[in-house]
Amino acid sequence: MNQSLIDRLIEVRGIESNYIDAWGKPAQIDPASKNKLLKAMGYPVDDEQGLMEKLEQERLQAWLNPLDPVQVNRLGEPLIVALRLPIELVNDRYSLRLVSEQGQVTDQAVVPSEGELINVSHIQDVEFQEYLLDIQAAPGLGYHQLKLVAEGEDELAVMKLIIAPQACYTPATIEQGGKIWGLSVQLYCLRSERNWGVGDFTDLRLLLAKAADSGAHFVGLNPIHALYPANPDACSPYGPSSRRWLNFIYLDVSAIEGFDEQAIQTLYQEANFQHALQQVRDNEQVDYQQVTRLKLAILSPLFEQFNQRYLKGNTRQNRAFKAFVAQGGESLQMLATYDALQETLKEQGKEYWGWPVFPAALAEFHLPDVKAFQKKYAQRIKFYQFLQWQAALQLEQAHQLAIENNMVIGIYRDLAVGVSEGSAEIWGNKSLYAINASVGAPPDVLGPLGQNWGLPPMDPQKLYQQAYQPIIDLFSANMQSCGALRIDHVMALLRLWWVARGDSAKQGGYVYYPVDDLLGILALESHRHQVLVIGEDLGTVPEEIRDKLADNGIYSYRVFFFEQAEDGGFYSPAHYPVQSMSTLTTHDMPTLKGYWHCLDLELGQRLGLYPSDDIVSSLYRSRHDNKQQILNSLHGHGSIPDWIDRHVDQVGMTWELNQGMQVHMAGGSSALLSLQLEDWLQMDKPVNVPGTSHEYPNWQRKLSVNLEQIFDEPTLQSLSRQLTEARNRATQAQG
Hints:
The radius of gyration is 27 Å and the shape is globular. Helix content is 39%, strand content 18%. The longest helix has 32 residues, at 316-347. It is built from 23 helices and 24 strands. By secondary structure, it is an alpha/beta fold. Helix 9 packs across helix 11, helix 14 runs parallel beside helix 15 (515-529) and helix 20 packs parallel to helix 23 (714-734).
């Protein structure tokens, strides 16, 4: 095999050879791992002839397309495009026709050879030349088309031209120096007197109202992406089926029109149903199987009733539903078909967990047998579209309530880094994904063994060839009905840690993405939806990307426990970047009580997460030292009462220490402060343990107190007042 060719391909496809690890030390990617990643991208690296043929095919594809598939420019930048043509055509006159998103048409006459020649190639003895041409038109923000038109109006090529703002949107209150706080919660964790064993969108409305009354300006959620109705135990919000659509389990069934009708009430009030409903409410953990069964048991007949009454003819509801389905397009049709197909395969006793085990004739969305399935099961597919419609309506109602309560942000959503292997999203666009690889993370503080998340990555080259439409749709969908979007593992815009199928996480390597283009699209969608963007920039993060994210108006994510100086001391929150959201802990970390009492280390040891006793001992020593440094910092800033001992061996996690840490953070310089409801309730169990799947009941633990009672607690009322006062003082200090 020609190694120089392989090395060149590794470079062209953005596979990194060296990086700086989470401890600041240089690290190298194993050459064998780089070859495996090329293989995952579809390159036959073990077949020199096959590889040469594939590379030639890619070269031809690039040269035979006169225009690139897509180009992203920032507003005000010079607009220069590349044009490729056979040499015998470069002296002809053409029109570069700019069609704006609003439909305005501007023609510019060009002769390619009058531009700057930048490249030459030969295809079957024909010379092709590539020129750079200046475009005189100045389209505004948006998604436009640039067409190459020959004489006689013959359209030779079309390019998507994206004009993006310089940075993401920031609400005026924050732009003017305001500092706000909010609560973060896993929506499914919410207990209430009326929900069906899982937090829902009506619970979210109540939480928003009570949080707003307490002085909070946002409620941060876990990803609420669509999961798997036929496979409820696949419950990780970070391993969804589709990131464009919602998890129907968050529907408040009782809020859907027609729930009060006699036929539905007869089913709902039945003794066995009510008994099961009370059980799932009382459970300490979400019973996804039972909750899903109960919800579908009512939703199915409720839909049939609704369909017969409203989804026929020229009713208000039918017009709204049809508009929703039309706007959802192929993506909604695909997800609804997938959900119905999984359900049908399960009922037939066949393997159903995901498309890899589907019958071959059903293993991709665009196959003929899938079309036949859609005709046969049209009504059930409509049912799943109906669920998405109702979920979108209920989420929007919560968003409107936040606006009515004058919350600066209101709902802040979370965008997962990928979709799971058996997802509908991959089933519907398989060519976009490297299905023989998974994304994860190299060894770092959160995962000493590295992490493999089981999420096949998008291939950056295929994403470019699809004119970035999948990422445009993704950003747009997740900015609906909210005021802020947190991007989980925001490094994915720059690079992702790919792990070839069968390898351990440590054997992976970084693959780079077109970061400037993706940031431009993110900024454009942010302004369109007026949504602030927060980037979760934890783990192995190159310093230059932090600067790039800041320049693009993305708010950094600062976790108190990670903000340590070289001498071990903890930085004062007053020194955090203003353009950031600060927090004490996250869903991937222990609660404050769990951290202070080392319950996470005990749990990790029981679950076998640490390679050796020496590592366990070092983790305990490090935790002890860190807690002492935290205590020193809190006392040094007067954030906790003097009567709390200054020696960590004498200090447990009391309410006074818990409260002191939260108010300490509220006095900091970050524009945003997010606090977990678990810490308000002094809970000790984590919601997720990274690096585990079945070893720990991840994504199931509920809150310990019903939502209706949380904000009546005097100590929490006092805490919320102190947080608001501290945030106001911090605002005035900056002003």
